[in-house]
Amino acid sequence: MVPPQIPLDDNRRLKELYRYEVLDTSYEDEFNDVVQLAATICKTPIALISLIDANRQWFKARYGLDMKEFPRDISFCGHTITSNTAIFEITDATQDERFIDNPLVIGEPYIRFYTGVPLINSNGFKVGTISVMDTKPGELNEEQIFTLQTLARQVVKLLDQNLLNKQLEQQQEKLQQQMEMQNRILSIIAHDVRNPIGAVKSIIELNARKILSQHDSVELMNMAGKQIDGTVELLNNLVDWGSMQMRGQGFEKEKVHMRTLVSNMFKSFEVMASLKSNIMVNLVDEDLFIKSEINSMRFILRNLISNANKFTKEGVITVYAHKEDKEIMLSVSDTGVGMTEEVKAKLFDGEHYQSTTGTGDEKGSGLGLILTKDFIHMLGGSIKVESTIDKGTSVYLYFND
Fold this sequence. Notes:
Elements: H1 10-19, H2 29-42, E1 46-52, E2 56-63, E3 69-71, H3 76-80, E4 88-90, H4 103-106, E5 113-120, E6 126-134, H5 142-208, H6 214-247, E7 254-257, H7 258-268, H8 270-275, E8 279-284, E9 289-292, H9 294-310, E10 316-324, E11 327-334, H10 341-345, H11 367-378, E12 382-388, E13 392-400
Parallel strand pairs: 8-10
Antiparallel strand pairs: 1-2, 1-6, 2-3, 4-5, 5-6, 7-9, 10-11, 11-13, 12-13
Helix pairs in contact: 2-5, 5-6, 6-11, 7-9, 9-11
């Protein structure tokens, strides 16, 4: 037996095959109809649509055969994709030294006759074959060969159409998610932006008309100031999120020194943290770099540090990051009030998001963490939250290096 050769460009060929995301998927009528037609016209008991993986020949459709795959090193189709001819035909495997002792010849399904046509995609790669087989010697006529070649082109069109349908579904799903997020943002703007500004306007008008006492005026202005702080935070989040949507996936990543980035973020929170007697600690490894989009990382850190400060008073806020193997872990922890499991479960729930008043009566929209998760996923990362009531909260981020 002579095993099929491995093409020099097999890695590129496999990349083309995997792009279809079809391996190990369920059988489909469109492909099943093709093999039944091939078997009928070629008058053979077996017909297959095979995709040649790294170590196996997997059947997307099969007729007259119970097996789901063959090892690549004994497959006839492995020879087909390396052949320089338009078709690969073996009239009698028992008379061919390449196959005379092949397990598929001396054992089930006892192949004697084989004809295969490669499935060549638009980029010129042979991702698989359509083939017919028989347990007795044989040969196809010109009409049958032409039909098999025509069916091969139809199979490639089916694969391309499946890929296009998947891409359209993904785009539709992404568009739907964006529309839902935009609707939520409009709702937030209508409530969480308009109401605080309306309240401040009313206070200013009352002051102008000298209706309020000095004590009441100061108290109301302090309350309005806290509401405005939350509104400014919300607007910053909305602007950053809108910028992300306009950039889409086209942003450029760069090498970011994480300790410096965290130090700069801490500087912008010095006043806010000192007002609540919170200490900020930077424990990021000195030599840690991450390849990322820096504005997105700023957005993520700003929201997580702001949230930690919001729910902590006279405590400690710690940012830690290090590299493990090929993964970078970054955490933002606080010694604040913590949260219940019920609240934690709704942190990133776009349908039921809500804001909780901070330890200094800070207001917010509840949108920051939802958008933060969007940014993390955009960068290919993941997020996990751990929290204990009266002990604090830790948010863990994981990114591929």
